[in-house]
Backbone:
């Protein structure tokens, strides 16, 4: 197996909804495993997501889970998920879906370095950066 590096997002109880949303955005195959499947049946966490993995047709892998019982969930601004490439229509489509219902901190528009770039936080509190690489002349 080839090694890979991908984001793993933590959620405060809405991992299922968030990962299903990302499946709507990116397409692909979503695998969800609950705490109940792995020994915590009959607990308040039984239906919460212990592990989720989305593998997309574009080769993206996004993982996530609800914060396990007894662990503190702290939100910060020390990460963003970055999407970049030269597929203008594809990346604009992702942007439209990710920014809908969220907040835009940098509108998706041409920047001083020549690319079309934007930053938003989706409705689940996950920050995204989208960079549409423009041909260099």
Residues:
């Amino acid at each position: 197996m080839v090694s890979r590096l991908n984001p793993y997002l933590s959620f405060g109880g809405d991992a299922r909804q968030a990962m299903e949303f990302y499946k709507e955005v990116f397409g692909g195959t979503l695998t969800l495993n609950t705490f109940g499947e792995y020994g915590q049946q009959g607990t308040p966490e039984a239906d919460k997501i212990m592990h989720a993995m989305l593998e997309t047709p574009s080769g993206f892998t996004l993982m996530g889970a609800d914060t396990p019982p007894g662990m503190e969930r702290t939100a910060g601004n020390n990460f963003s998920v970055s999407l970049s490439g030269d597929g203008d229509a594809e990346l604009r489509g992702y942007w439209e879906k990710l920014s809908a219902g969220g907040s835009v901190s940098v509108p998706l528009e041409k920047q001083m370095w020549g690319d079309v770039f934007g930053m938003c936080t989706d409705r689940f509190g996950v920050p995204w950066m989208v960079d549409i690489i423009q041909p260099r002349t």
About this structure: The chain has a mean pLDDT of 89. The chain is about 20% helix and 35% strand. Residues 66 and 81 are 18 Å apart (CA to CA). Residues 81-132 form a domain with the Signal recognition particle alu RNA binding heterodimer, srp9/1 fold (CATH 3.30.720.110).
